[in-house]
Amino acid sequence: MEDHRDEDFSKSKPIFKAFTGEGQKLGSATPELVSLPKSQQDQAASEAEASASISVDSSQPVTSIQIRLADGGRLVQKFNHTHRVSDVRQFVASARPALAATEFVLMTTFPNKELTDESLTLKEANLLNAVIVQRLK
Asked: Residue 19: inside a domain, yes or no?
């Protein structure tokens, strides 16, 4: 340590130097948002039509499934336990016709698992009251 008590304090000016390097974007676990210009009315109409296409038998066990879409939207739909994973895929495709043209997969949230066997019932696939994420390929 040095004794500087006898010296006057002089505040030095910091020299500002902007960052001149370049950055690299790393991959993300969340899906990229795909913005598709579509009116709210058209979107609501296609969602209502998709919901009407799913016939739910209220005398059988019923579950609600939340689907997080690649465009940032969210759908909640009631299904019977005997509905198949393919019915969920068909529901997503009819609720968002613009995204149906692109290739996508359905995945569970935790643990992340791709739903490849679409012939399984929702009960067999352990999707009762689950959250499903749509990912674009």
From this structure: no
C-alpha 133/C-alpha 129 separation (Å) is 13
Residue 113 falls inside a structural domain: yes
pTM given for the model: 0.64
Helix, strand, coil shares, percent, the chain, to 5: 20, 20, 60
65: which 2 tokens? 């499934």
Percent of the chain scoring above 70 in pLDDT: 88
Q: How far apart are CA 126 and CA 128, in angstroms?
A: 6
Amino acid type, 33: L
Domain annotation covers residue 26: no
- 29 domain-assigned: no
Q: What pLDDT does residue 109 have?
A: 83
Instruction: Specify the 3-state DSSP secondary structure of 21.
Output: coil
